[in-house]
Amino acid sequence: MPPVGPRSGDAIFANVERVNAELFTLTYGAIVRQLLTDLEEVEEVNKQLDQMGYNIGIRLIDEFLAKSNVSRCVDFKETAEVIAKIGFKMFLGVTASVTNWDADGTCCSIVLEDNPLVDFVELPDTCQGLYYCNILSGVVRGALEMVSMKTEISWIRDMLRGDDAFELQVKLLKQVPEEYPYKDDE
Amino acid sequence: MIGVGKIKQYSNVLDKPLSKGKQEVSLSAFAFLFSELVQYNQTQVDNIAELERSRLEDAGYAVGARVLELLCHRDKGNRRETRLLGILSFVHSTVWKVLFGKVADSLEKGTEHEDEYMISEKELLVNRFISIPKDMGTFNCGAFVAGIVRGVLDGAGFPAVVTAHFVPVEGQQRPRTTILIKFAEEVLRREARLG
């Protein structure tokens, strides 16, 4: 019998197949280096990383829903918590926290202190404008879009730029009502 | 610019203690990322050979070079193998174990050529969720792993041509992947001299 109610991020992570984070880290590094060589402009690399993340996000949401047993979130606050506590844990093995809510509950920050993407990484002077982890913002944006939420995501803090944590600001732009491709009586 | 004027946690990456390498991420996270690597590189090439040889292999090479450095430092007290069989078993055991969580299924010497060795894996991690479209012929995403192997070997002073091939296995639906290593002449000459 499937478990009732959402499973904790730890429980899911303990049960999925895992790989060494260093393989993941170094592979991501290889991707970023390829992009820097191919595209030359740091801005273009940021865009491409975000696009790759988006591509991942729109696929990853299926696995997330299938394994987490999360039901519909009542509001955006719950959504953000679920991403931070279950989503990040389930895929990257790290937990994030949610802070800095605005008054109307549509904008918040997801803060990551531990981030497997950036081990061994240091930004050279020529790459100061690079959002090295921009793939993550793409993933979150893509995944949320698949559950009817249009968001805008930006980096507020970045440890590679000297900050004390990674902070991703998630702003809910609008909730797209679900459209059914079929009529009720069919 | 963000971050300017703030104190960095570590003034540079070398001050940071080296992790023990026990951290893990989910296999899906890696599979998603790898799939993006392949898809992106597909947009950058005209043919399969280019995709394998100059794109995926290059990406892997960069990983291999770093893995060698990391493992020599962390696991081998800054020593590295200098003999052919030593470095091969280092790749087959140590490198494989760290990257893929297991020792490779087999390491064999080529029967036809003195300079060829093969590392085979029944189900190579990077090929787990990959199916090759018919029109892509013999394309093998293992080229990435071949690149890693070449990166490790080259960095250790054993230049070689490394390629990935599917080899059908009797009674199995999916072929295994063989990483074929062909060492450069100088490597064999040196090896002979060392006796």
Tell me roughly what share of residues is in helical segments of chain A.
40-55%
Side by side, the strands of the main sheet of chain A go: 2-3-5-4
Cα distance spanning the termini of chain A:
31 Å
Largest interface: A-B, 48 and 44 residues
CATH homologous superfamily label of chain A: Trafficking protein particle complex subunit 3
Report the major sheet of chain B: 4 strands, antiparallel
Shape of chain A: globular
The whole-number mean of residue pLDDT values of chain B reads 90
* Count of spatially separate domains of chain B: 1
Run of helices and strands of chain A: HEHHHEEHEE
Q: Flag low-confidence runs of chain B.
A: 1-8
**Which spans of chain A have pLDDT < 50 for at least 5 consecutive residues?**
none
Question: What is the CATH T-level topology of chain A?
Answer: Muramoyl-pentapeptide Carboxypeptidase, domain 2
Word description of this protein:
Chain A is of the alpha+beta class and 186 residues long. Chain A has a single domain (9-175), classed as Trafficking protein particle complex subunit 3 (Muramoyl-pentapeptide Carboxypeptidase, domain 2), CATH 3.30.1380.20. Chain A has helices at residues 9-15, 21-39, 42-68, 76-92, 134-146, and strands spanning 18-20, 96-99, 107-112, 149-157, 166-175. In chain A, a hairpin with an 8-residue loop joins strand 4 and strand 5 (166-175). In chain A, helix 1 (9-15) runs parallel beside helix 4 (76-92) and helix 3 (42-68) crosses helix 5. The longest helix of chain A has 27 residues, at 42-68. Chain A is globular. Chain B has 195 residues and is of the alpha+beta class. Chain B has one domain (27-194): Trafficking protein particle complex subunit 3 (Muramoyl-pentapeptide Carboxypeptidase, domain 2, 2-Layer Sandwich). Chain B has 5 helices and 5 strands, in the order E-H-H-H-E-E-H-E-E-H. In chain B, strands 2-3-5-4 form a 4-stranded antiparallel sheet. The longest helix of chain B has 28 residues, at 48-75. Chain B is globular and about 45 Å long. Chain B starts with 23 loop residues before the first strand and ends with a helix. The model of chain B is unreliable at 1-8 (pLDDT under 50).
